[in-house]
Write a structure and sequence with these properties.
Chain lengths: ~180, ~625
């Protein structure tokens, strides 16, 4: 029994198809739907309903996880507009951005070597601020200007930032 | 006066009849069973008034078993056949047990999970755990006066797939219908949250006899959402006992000990640890087999020193869980303490310091998990509780596949909300390759050898093509119990082959069925009667579920013909349930199941619609 997968993630939660979203509204819609269709609500139902409930709940979790994270949300939105921003062929990045990345990476390595938690925290703060700047750029390009090619370029930068932030997480564990 | 109607037992239940369901905390040291009675969750005691059942099983030469206090009392006398802390062996091989040489058991290495040689034959940890579950099941049925509809069984949040699967199998061998495997910290959060109408971010610090879990939850009105979980499935109160035990050997200059003496001194070590929760120092005395007398004084200070590294070992996972949740210690509104080991003052102080607030200890740390599990069991069994609430839990460890070079490719990341599914495409490595070996692993490390191997299977029948041309789509699905199933199919050409596996530690469904048969053969039970009874329960459940669904919105969602078709199959099944023919019952159940698929789909759509109405009526386009 195929589910109605024709609805996109935004439609599923009755949200406008934009990068800037109301996080509270997303949370509420997510919890509202899960409250109706989660497998716990069908533990004493027939097999068909149990199976469907698991499929729906899985689908709703996927949609929520996609829309909750800025990178995934933007990538998904671009996909809906027919743009594959993370295409493997599309790897060129501006030189100044790459230089900046290298500087951050060096700072990260230094902090790990010196086991300097406060340097790590400072770097994390700086990166998060920069990531937020990229998110605002994305909102402008996607929601106002509709410039999907430019948005794709920014999205690739976001990917770099997310990777770096993940490495900072791992660095905390190494130091501790 | 009209005559009262009495239905045949087990055939028709009134729609509002209370269904008997329990929550079971299957612990390393102690186990408990609880249920909701008159709206209140209570632990069920044995005939002697004990709530806790020591998780100790003694196998006797005549094939019988003794479980609990009686077994515990004789542990030192019969160390080889008295199994304690069996939970540490669930879903584990010999190489996974670090201190195996200090244990008095005769282990047998078996693929995936070790086995134990006893006077009653070779036993799998699954069978040993099943003995504990059987006692709890019997206790509950005696206390509640009827057969159980099912049970929620708790597992450490950090249990991997093999350990979860082993727990579910143990329940099956014990004849229990598992309504859900529930993570222990989540169960505790339910008990605490519902009791205190708590809202905000809470941490549950759960240090049991053999496992440690930390979960970070967000409690909002009616929703318990696990944001992150972490832990160590081989760290618990037992390790504190062992430190004391080693200290005793050192102090008394003991080298080789009989198994009797090992078991005796381990018990003394635990007593000493427990005494130190109340007193600044304690006396340890014991008489060994040789007649040698041990007499030692242990102070709280030296206990704290020798166990300090264990306490710190719990803080690293706590930091990781907070970071995964994207939170700071100061964001946490309350810390719920679970597990007998959290009674240690040193633990409470360390946690108090870490979170900058004293932990909440107003619930009995031994009972809170079982109490929460009982509440969840009550709801899952279909007894409508007063307030409606929802539980959103996560998968504790990343799930992935082995790729070229022995590297792990993560498919489902840790802390993904369950149920969840993820698919990924792979391709062939050599020209003309017609089979692909799929190795499913769990863990965070990059090298496959550092992760836990869950299952291996082969996808065959791939049409020969040049390397890289085939498209193999591998789908991971984790269900609401946190259990994984994997499907692989070739989609590159129109030809599809397809295989589904349930990862396990080596026990096949047949082996579980075999254990179940053995278990009943001994109890002089009749498997056929058992099968019929189970099929009837399933059929009856479907009748009730279908009738309830039809009453709710059958008229709205079905045409007259569709309604008639379902009602016909419903009547067939009801008729079959009055007979005693297993295959008829199964066939009619299956027919009604098939006949209600479309209805179920429409009901599900209706539910989603219902969830969104009220918020954004104007934006709905169903």
């Amino acid at each position: 029994m195929p589910l109605d997968f024709s609805k996109n993630h935004f439609e599923l939660f009755a949200l406008p198809m934009t990068f800037a979203i109301d996080a509270d509204q997303l949370d509420q819609a997510y919890r509202g739907i899960q409250s109706e269709i989660h497998p716990d609500k069908f533990a004493d139902a027939g097999d068909a309903e149990q199976r469907l409930s698991m499929q729906w709940s899985t689908r709703v979790n996927e949609a929520y996880q996609t829309l909750r994270k800025p990178f995934e949300r933007a990538r998904y939105l671009l996909q809906l507009h027919g743009v594959d921003a993370m295409d493997a062929k599309n790897t060129s990045m501006p030189a100044d951005f790459l230089m900046q990345q290298m500087e951050w990476r060096e700072a990260l390595m230094d902090a790990v070597e010196m086991r300097d938690i406060s340097a790590l925290e400072g770097l994390e703060k700086e990166l998060k601020l920069h990531a937020q700047g990229l998110h605002s750029q994305l909102a402008g390009l996607l929601d106002e200007q509709g410039d999907f090619v430019a948005a794709g370029n920014v999205l690739r930068k976001v990917r770099f930032m997310d990777k770096l932030l993940e490495e900072i997480d791992a660095a905390y564990e190494d130091i501790e | 006066m009209a005559l009262l109607q009495i239905s045949e037992p087990g055939l028709s239940t009134a729609p509002h009849q209370h269904r008997l369901a329990v929550g079971i905390d299957l612990g390393t040291t102690n186990s408990l069973v609880a249920t909701v009675r008159n709206g209140v969750s209570v632990v069920l005691n044995d005939a002697r008034g004990h709530g806790l059942l020591p998780s100790v099983v003694r196998f006797l030469g005549d094939g019988s078993t003794s479980v609990g206090y009686d077994a515990q009392a004789l542990a030192a006398q019969d160390p080889h056949n008295t199994i304690t802390s069996v939970k540490r062996f669930m879903g584990r091989g010999i190489k996974d047990i670090p201190d195996i040489s200090t244990l008095p058991y005769q282990f047998i290495d078996a693929p995936g999970m070790l086995q134990l040689k006893t006077v009653a034959g070779v036993k799998s940890p699954v069978e040993v755990s099943a003995e504990i579950l059987k006692v709890l099941k019997a206790r509950a049925e005696a206390s509640l006066g009827g057969e159980l509809v099912g049970a929620v069984i708790t597992v450490p949040a950090y249990f991997d797939d093999a350990q979860r699967q082993a727990t579910k199998d143990a329940a099956k061998v014990a004849g229990l219908n598992v309504l859900r495997l529930l993570n222990e910290p989540t169960a505790a959060a339910i008990a605490y949250g519902l009791d205190n109408a708590a809202e905000g971010i809470y941490a549950v610090y759960d240090l049991g006899g053999g496992t440690f879990d930390i979960s970070i939850l967000k409690l909002t009105k009616g929703v318990f959402e696990v944001l992150a979980t972490n832990g160590d499935s081989a760290l618990g109160g037992d390790d504190f006992d062992r430190r004391v035990y080693c200290w005793m050997l050192e102090q008394a200059c003991l080298h080789t000990l009989s198994d009797h003496d090992k078991t005796l001194l381990m018990a003394r070590a635990r007593d000493a640890k427990e005494m130190l929760s109340e007193h600044p120092q304690t006396q340890i005395t014991a008489v060994l087999t040789s007649g040698e007398v041990i007499d030692l004084t242990l102070t709280e200070q030296s206990f704290n020193e020798m166990t300090d590294s264990l306490v710190r070992k719990t803080l690293a996972p706590t930091r990781k869980a907070l970071r995964d949740a994207g939170l700071q210690a100061s964001d946490v509104k309350g810390v719920v303490m679970v597990g007998g080991s959290t009674r240690m003052p040193r633990i409470q102080a360390a946690i108090g310091e870490f979170f900058g607030q004293m932990p909440l200890t107003n619930l009995d740390p031994d009972k809170v998990v079982a109490l929460g599990a009982a509440v969840q069991a009550n709801v899952l069994a279909g007894n409508k509780a007063g307030d409606d609430w929802l539980l959103l839990d996560v998968v504790p460890l990343s799930l992935g596949l082995e790729t070229m070079g022995g590297l792990t490719e993560k498919i489902i990341p840790r802390n993904a909300t369950i149920p969840t599914a993820r698919a990924q495409e792979f391709t062939t490595f050599k020209d003309g390759q017609t089979a692909m070996s799929i190795h499913v692993v769990q863990g965070e490390r990059e090298l496959v050898t550092d992760c836990r191997s869950l299952a291996r299977f082969e996808l065959r029948g791939i049409p020969p093509m040049v390397a890289g041309a085939a498209r193999i789509r591998v789908t991971f699905q984790v269900d609401a119990d946190g259990l994984l199933s994997v499907t692989a199919r070739e989609t590159g050409t129109g030809i599809e082959s397809h295989i589904a596996v349930k990862p396990s530690y080596g026990l096949t469904d047949d082996e579980v069925a075999g254990m179940l048969r053995d278990s009943y053969a001994h109890a002089q039970d009749d498997m056929t009667a058992r099968n019929l009874a189970e099929a009837r329960v399933d059929g009856q459940r479907l009748v009730e579920a279908t009738e309830a669904a039809l009453a709710e919105n059958g008229a709205l969602l079905l045409s007259a013909e569709e309604l008639q078709a379902i009602e016909n199959r419903l009547e067939d099944l009801k008729l079959a349930l009055q007979g005693a023919d297993l295959s008829t019952v199964k066939r009619s159940t299956e027919a009604l199941n098939k006949g209600t698929v479309e209805f179920a789909a429409r009901r599900m759509d209706q539910s989603v619609k219902k969830a969104l109405t009220g918020h954004k009526l104007d934006e709905l386009e169903f």
